[in-house]
Amino acid sequence: xxxxxxxxxxxxxxKDFDLLLNNVQIGIQNGVxxxxxxxxxxxxxxxxxxxxxxxxxxxxxREDLFISDKVDAWQxxxxxxxxxQYVQDALHKMHLDYLDLVLVHWPLxxxxxxxxxxxxxxxEKGLIRNIGVCNVxxxxxxxxxxxxxxxxxxxxxxxxPLNNCDEVVNWCNEKNIKIMAYSxxxxxxxxxxxxxxxxxxSIKYNKSIxxxxxxxxxxxSVMPVFMSHNPKRIVxxxxxxxxxxxxxxxxxxxxxxxxxxxxxxxxxxxxxxIH
Length: 275
Known about the structure:
Structural class: alpha/beta
Distance between the termini: 35 Å
CATH architecture: Alpha-Beta Barrel
Strand content: 5-15%
Mean pLDDT: 94
CATH superfamily: NADP-dependent oxidoreductase domain
Number of domains: 1
Number of helices: 12
Largest sheet: 8 strands, parallel, barrel
């Protein structure tokens, strides 16, 4: 399939086969076809076996799945940006012929451009379908374009009402770069749960605060990457396509921004200028 998922299920540190199998199957039954992993999550292998199991059972077809993996900073450093072996290893580990998306997890400036060039070669060979970069600002994307000659197909940033990444989101939407949001609910930060705005809108739309936030992402053309070990929460998180937010309510949620991040930028993600 070339259809882009509207929502992703993340697998950060989710290594329990039975739990993940149940959750992935519930997700698929509720419209989730995008699944996100990374070497550092320690979940590539178990996710691959889960998906292989569900494919063999006829629950889902491979072409209806969109599987997103990453290359981590240590891999970029260890092989000077040459990613072929790591991607091949991931494919073997996950029992796959191709990955729908491979993201550069952290844009280490010393290895970023070589890594992207390597991923371009793998895309040309059909081993990956799309290339992306995580934890980026507009400056990173402009530098990628000037050094490599392309823009990534996807980005994945920490995005939620307390860190709305408005400029990056608007810029990427203008450039047709698809946007994924990790930690889309900001781990239900107290400021979100106790927000008078979100409490008011929860009553207005008869939806939970979590559902409102996930819908806010969709309204901004952002694909949330949610995680949950609770089947009821998975159903709740995916029950957000039966309503839409008024434009003024989107603006009100946007105004909650305070540039708060759960995962602070590190040397792995130097703060290039926004413009």
